Amino acid sequence: MLARETATLIHSAKVELDHDWGLDHGTWTVVRHMYPDAKIPVLQLSIDYTKGPQYHYDLSKELLALRKKGVLIIGSGNMVHNLRMVAWDKINQSGYGYDWALSINEKFKSLITENDHRPLINYSQMGREAMLAIPTPEHYLPLMYTLGLRSGQEKVSFFNDQAVGGSLTMTSVKIG
User: Fold this and answer.
1) Which CATH number fits the domain that encloses residue 154?
2) Where in this chain does the record put each Extradiol ring-cleavage dioxygenase class III enzyme subunit B domain (predicted)?
3) pLDDT tens digits, residue range 18-32?
């Protein structure tokens, strides 16, 4: 029922329902900790990573009706996610981050707090640090949905804000 309702809300993209696909690791790794008894329905939307951030930001606006009905929408990804540069020898060193990773993570958080989404949508114009943080967009694009669903001056908070292995951050954003 929720899947069909969601499909009717989206007009800017073709929506196909698939009940056989299963959950991606970006969904189940988050949801299993939040709801270990698995007594909630979970609907996962695929991200077309061939489309740019503006497309995803705009598409998120079509999901606002779900949020207004109390549906929890999670954008699961990482703002800083460069697996090619992970310092595997320091993966267990708490909070270890390269200077560029820590710097851009702080810049991203500042822009989110200020409700200044334009630079985040156009991250490729933010310089070398942003391009190191986001060498491929699939882990970053879920943030566009989270930001696109923010209405007005809703409160923003951050948790799990820690660097891992130098080139990853696990920073989570809560809106509302």
Assistant:
1) 3.40.830.10
2) 2-156
3) 888 888 888 888 888
Reported as a single tens digit per residue, the pLDDT across 36-90 is 998 888 888 888 989 999 999 999 999 999 999 999 998 888 999 999 999 999 9
- What's the domain count of the chain? 1
Report residue 152 as tokens.
Answer: 């007005």
d(CA 42, CA 31): 8
pTM: 0.90
- pLDDT exceeding 70 applies to what percent of the chain? 100
**How does DSSP assign 113-163, residue by residue?**
HTT-HHHHHTGGGS-HHHHHH-SSGGGTHHHHHHHHT--TT--EEEES--E
pLDDT digits (tens, 9 = 90+) for 136-174: 999 999 999 999 999 888 999 999 999 999 999 989 999
Q: Which two tokens stand for residue 6?
A: 């969601």
Q: In which domain, by residue range, is 108 found?
A: 2-175
- C-beta neighbour count of 7 within 10 angstroms: 13
Start-to-end Cα distance in the chain: 26
The two three-digit tokens of residue 84, written as one number: 């090619």
